[in-house]
């Protein structure tokens, strides 16, 4: 290669910041990661004499160590001066979270050096241990113990992408690093988490209890899935619809299930150090100042997970709030995060690249549109979604049951069958909405467990700008549903029933 080409393409001495060469004494976001600084030229580390030779050079372009080298003495000297106090302030090391912020580029690692020009003089690299850990998180490999435990204890055959998700969850659990399982709706987030609970129960000696926090409407769903897929997991439902608010006298439970609204009422939950806290439908904690968000984030846990099909609904602040739960401090305080995004936007730099690099290892998201996933799915996936009855529905339902019992005790034969069938219709109407049965025309959302659950499902669909098809057996329910769904989707839908004009049906 001719010298003139070398002169046009010179190397530049840089500050190399190496993080995590050795394994720390403990795991988790607060684990101390070793930290070292050096001056490098390409891949060669320079000693003090060589650094001084560069700084004493009278030229900005010199032939040094067999290569053309660009030397900005003023800039290099300034960066070195800033690095010395930064290095001393680190002491025994950085926390894992701080190390990840440096490695991603969210922070520069050289104190006040925040300009693009200064940062170009700094190269942050991962050491041997940190490189291995990140590879393990991003490309997790299963082992015989995991395979055998799931085969013996899970009443289902996981699909390949679900196995990958389970191993990812278990590796994060071992490392005590929080994560967000953000798979698309219907891809099986529940069964992957149940698999994690099974692995903890059977592979971790003396594993602490786990806490699962869900919307009230999903308690029945989790209860049914536990009974179907993981019957060996012993659970207690801390909710009036389950075992009540009291603390179980027998502490021999693998899992406590409660709701977001119950957290502030159950003081004993805050006294336990949980093995894992799982927040289902975690968009419920996107508002960091909400009472239920604060209550959940105050809980003590070795490991935290969030489940959501929409990790970012409207603003990046949603993502910050989720990470403030699963990995407090990883994205800094809300003010630091907001300042970082504004600073990048103002400078014209791409803020999303370093942010994606920072959070990437701790978010697992698979879409149904991904061919690698969709090819392994059956043609149709059915999910039963259980709904809690409202208080009004419970009263009406119970009264109807009592009335039915009195009536059928008096009659026999074909009349008895007719009465039973008519009451079955009444039960369906009450379960849809009390207003359908009493015909008062109110159709308030709070009066119906189905309406409340339908909102939770459809808000996710609306946020993703997807489409939904909703069926009802009753024509009289189409108008109330149409009005209700307009409020969720922000626009009118299409209504099709027997009286719809033929011209409009297509």
Characterise this structure.
There is one protein chain. With 506 residues, this protein is α/β, with parallel strands linked by helices. The strands form four sheets. Strands 11-12-10-13-14-9-15 form a seven-stranded parallel β-sheet. It is elongated.
Principal-axis shape: elongated
Give me the number of helical elements. 21
Q: State the distance separating the first and last CA atoms.
A: 70 Å
Give the fraction of residues assigned to helices: 40-55%
Which spans of ≥5 residues are poorly predicted at pLDDT below 50?
none
Instruction: Determine the oligomeric state from the structure.
Output: single chain
Widest sheet: strand ordering: 11-12-10-13-14-9-15
Mean pLDDT equals 85
Q: Which class do the helix and strand fractions yield? A: alpha/beta
Radius of gyration: 29 Å
How would you sum up the major sheet?
Answer: 7 strands, parallel
Percent of residues in β-strands: 5-15%
Number of strands: 15
């Amino acid at each position: 290669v001719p010298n003139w080409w070398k002169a046009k393409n010179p190397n530049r001495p840089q500050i190399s910041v190496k993080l995590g060469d050795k394994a720390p004494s403990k795991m988790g976001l607060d684990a101390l990661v070793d930290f070292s600084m050096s001056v490098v030229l390409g891949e060669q580390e320079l000693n003090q004499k060589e650094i001084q030779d560069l700084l004493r050079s009278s030229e900005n372009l010199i032939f040094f160590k067999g290569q053309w080298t660009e030397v900005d003495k003023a800039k290099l000297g300034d960066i070195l001066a800033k690095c010395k106090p930064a290095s001393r302030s680190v002491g025994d090391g950085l926390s894992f979270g701080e190390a990840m912020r440096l490695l991603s580029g969210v922070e520069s690692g050289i104190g006040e050096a925040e300009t693009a020009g200064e940062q170009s003089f700094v190269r942050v690299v991962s050491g041997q241990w940190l490189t291995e850990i990140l590879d393990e998180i991003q490309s997790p490999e299963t082992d015989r113990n995991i395979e055998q435990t799931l085969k013996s204890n899970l009443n289902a055959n996981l699909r390949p992408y679900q196995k990958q998700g389970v191993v990812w969850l278990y590796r994060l659990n071992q490392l005590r690093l929080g994560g967000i399982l953000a798979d698309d709706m219907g891809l099986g987030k529940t069964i992957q988490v149940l698999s994690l609970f099974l692995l903890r129960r059977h592979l971790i000696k003396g594993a602490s209890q786990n806490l699962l926090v869900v919307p009230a409407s999903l308690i029945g769903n989790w209860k049914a899935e536990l009974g179907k897929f993981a019957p060996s997991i012993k659970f207690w439902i801390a909710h009036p619809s389950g075992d009540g608010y009291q603390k179980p006298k027998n502490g021999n439970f693998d899992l406590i299930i409660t709701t977001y609204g119950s957290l502030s009422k159950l003081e004993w939950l805050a006294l336990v150090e949980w093995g894992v806290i799982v927040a289902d439908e975690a968009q419920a904690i996107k508002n960091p100042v909400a009472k239920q968000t604060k209550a959940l984030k105050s809980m003590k846990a070795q490991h935290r997970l969030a489940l959501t099909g929409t990790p970012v609904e409207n603003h990046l602040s949603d993502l910050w709030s989720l990470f403030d739960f699963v990995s407090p401090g990883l994205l800094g305080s809300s003010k630091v995060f907001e300042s970082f995004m504004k600073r990048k936007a103002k400078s014209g730099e791409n803020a999303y690249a370093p942010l994606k690099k920072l959070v990437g290892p701790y978010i697992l998201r698979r879409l149904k549109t991904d061919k690698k996933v969709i090819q392994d799915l059956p043609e149709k996936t059915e999910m039963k979604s259980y709904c809690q009855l409202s208080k009004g529905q419970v009263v009406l339902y119970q009264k109807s049951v009592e009335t039915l019992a009195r009536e059928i005790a008096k009659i026999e034969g074909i009349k008895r069958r007719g009465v039973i069938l008519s009451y079955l219709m009444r039960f369906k109407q009450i379960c849809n909405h009390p207003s359908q049965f009493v015909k008062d025309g109110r159709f308030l959302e709070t009066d119906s467990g189905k309406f409340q659950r339908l909102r939770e499902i459809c808000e996710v669909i609306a946020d993703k700008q997807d489409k939904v098809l909703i069926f009802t057996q009753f024509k009289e329910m189409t108008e109330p549903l149409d009005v209700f769904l307009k409020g969720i989707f922000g626009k009118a839908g299409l209504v099709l029933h027997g009286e719809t004009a033929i011209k409009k049906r297509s």
